[in-house]
Amino acid sequence: MVGDYRSYLRKLPKVELHCHVEGTLRPATVVELAGKHSIRLPTTEVDQIYRYDTIYEFLEIYKTVNSTVIDRDDFARMAYETLEDGVRLGNLKYREMFFNPTLHTARGIPMATVMDGLVDGIRAAEHDLGVRCALIADVYRQDPPEVARRMVEEVLEHRRPELIGLGMDAAEAPDPPEKFVEAYRVAKAGGLRLTSHCAEDGPAKNVTTCLDLLGCERLDHGYHALEDPAVVARCIDQGVTFTVCPTSTAVVYGWPDLTTHPITRMIEAGMSVMLNSDDPTMFHTDIGNEYAEFCAQNDYPPGLVRRLVMQGVEAAWLDDSDKAAMRRAFEAEIDELDREFGI
Ligand SMILES: [Zn+2]
């Protein structure tokens, strides 16, 4: 092999299906936006913004950094910069990106401002950098069911072509998926595709609930599915893809290193997974780093890595012709990289 395997892994073309725009703000941008809106931050030292020791401090920082994103230009900047980071650090080609509407509407920001701003940033990034991006609105699990249903109605009222799906995040154990059947029903009736964070800090049976009761087509995380062989077998059988996140979950759940991460067992079991950065700047990572570290530390050979990359293409919510074109472009680019690196 010519050159370093980690740089090969960074340079592979990538699809990302599990990234929360609110967890992608550059620390320097947080400081600038806080200045623009006269918001006091606990620190204005750029390298101290994302310093935390506990999950509670983490959640506090998440709220604080997002309080600096207020007008349409701020939302546009947030979306543009994270796509730029994805391209620069990981050769990102296409992302389906989560946003959390009630995180913003609850602090008085109109839904139109949120969506129009994100769409502005996405379109500018595609124009300047060639990267494409769609949006998935996330239910915040600690919201009451009627707030979630109303959120779905509102995103559908302000629907832009970039909005393609509904997802669900935040603490899973206290608020199981069945709480949001109605929000998912409204989303499906409105033509949205469906996913959910699932079996991350909740039991394997949440996988079954998300598939059968909510109608999810793919799932996010899913590590606890491993605890029930019947659930694992069903997901393999049905071809359910899990959008998994090595770094963020290793940090949150204190898993000691990436070689013992449950994702390795999901791959061994034959489950369909693809790699993602989750909340990249919050966890000091990026999509390039997720591939570089997870695949290199596990000694995954190029053939297996190619399968992980291509699984991202297969699990994307693109139409068939678009997906076929992306499949061809990815295969050609990976072949070229294999030649360059002597693989
Ligand atoms: Zn997530």
UniProtKB/TrEMBL annotation:
<feature type="domain" description="Adenosine deaminase">
    <location>
        <begin position="13"/>
        <end position="327"/>
    </location>
</feature>
<keyword id="KW-0378">Hydrolase</keyword>
<dbReference type="Pfam" id="PF00962">
    <property type="entry name" value="A_deaminase"/>
</dbReference>
<keyword id="KW-0862">Zinc</keyword>
<dbReference type="InterPro" id="IPR001365">
    <property type="entry name" value="A_deaminase_dom"/>
</dbReference>
<keyword id="KW-0479">Metal-binding</keyword>
<protein>
    <submittedName>
        <fullName>Adenosine deaminase</fullName>
    </submittedName>
</protein>
<dbReference type="InterPro" id="IPR032466">
    <property type="entry name" value="Metal_Hydrolase"/>
</dbReference>
<dbReference type="InterPro" id="IPR006330">
    <property type="entry name" value="Ado/ade_deaminase"/>
</dbReference>
<comment type="similarity">
    <text>Belongs to the metallo-dependent hydrolases superfamily. Adenosine and AMP deaminases family.</text>
</comment>
